[in-house]
Amino acid sequence: MTQQIPPDPESTNKDGLKKLILRLPIVIGEAVKDKAAQWSDSSKLREERVALEWNEATVNAVKTEIEDLLRRKFAHGGLAETWTEDELQLAEEIANATRKSEISNITRTEAYWTIYEQYPELHWAFLAHMVSRNAGWWMTDLKGSRLQNVLDEEEKKSIYRFFERSNALIFQDAYPQLLLYSKSREIGRSLFHLLPYFHVSRFMEPFWQRFWIDRSSPLLTVGLIINEQNYIDKQVFRHPHYQISLDEIHESFLIQLLSMNHIIFPLLENSGNIYGLKQQESAASGRDCPESYAAHRLAGRSVINPVSLPARIALGKSLYAMLFGLRAVHSGAQRFAACVPHTGSRADYWPDLFTANKAEALTPVREGSELPQGETLPAGQRLYSPKLLDAWGDAPYEPILREDWFKDHSALDGISAPQPPYLCDVSREHRYGVMRSAFPEGAAD
């Protein structure tokens, strides 16, 4: 019987290092090529800029009003409210409408889009709609084929509750504000003195009162970004039940997370038929869509430091400037939002890579599968990305803290003109991240 000699670990390591060194020029070359392509693709999206009106005099006036609110609060120990019976009835109508629309990520995302369609000056509503779609995609990723063997069920539930609570809390705080604007438009006078009824921070009233006068959409959007990120900071990111320490997440999940760290805006053009949707189908869903669709690109940004409050505020402002400051991004994203109903499945935007039908998916991904080089995967071999309602049921969460986060002048630091990023096309980067997580063995070769 021939005795087998175990492999020499040192020799194996040397062989691996040799392969890595030999492949290094190729990897560097591919990285340089991809980055150059990203710059080129991004420059096309940046060709036509749209000026976001930013009046420093108005900004300074709002800051002064906010500082005055702080002084009055500290001087009097709080501000008393007096509302009429009619105002209380109207406020309760808004509260009821909010409860009806906050059932799930699907209903919240649709509610944002509906009010934006009615009042396109509410830029934040469109931004919230697109970001809320991303929250849905992140939640279904946890049940998709790419993460099926990475986390156990309890870990998946914990991360799902983190995304769900963030999405729900922002809606609960912001949507009544949007409806209050709608009611103000209906009756022809400002109702923003009712904001405290909904436990909205005092920080927001100067923004809304100024918006009622001059319709300065960028300033209001920046105010809402600062407010909502501060609102969820204590209730989610610093809440002991929801804190997710990167040190406690399995290393393999961090690799998978690389394909989940993009906030993307799918861009849809009016030609071709990538979605296979027919005009009568879109009409039946209440959406005025073109008869056919073209392959789209993805605009977006990477989430670098989600735990940092200033970083999240800066990211929100950058996404806003991209969405409304670059005409190609705005028109493509708006067409996508109008024509593609949100289901939570990534098949919503890349149906040639993902499928919501588990029976038609490549699940599980074969060990050692080669990293696909094309733009699509053939039918029957696509990645499973379920619809949100198929993946998760209702998830009740803990009571909400009714405390105004606005305590000092630090929030004023984020009030500055939004600027779009130079690198705004993430199509190649996102696709590679998706494929790398789905075909890890092939990606590593």
Automatic annotation (TrEMBL):
InterPro entries for this protein: DUF2515 (IPR019658)
Taxonomy, superkingdom: Bacteria
Protein name: DUF2515 domain-containing protein
Phylogenetic classification of the source organism: Bacteria, Bacillati, Bacillota, Bacilli, Bacillales
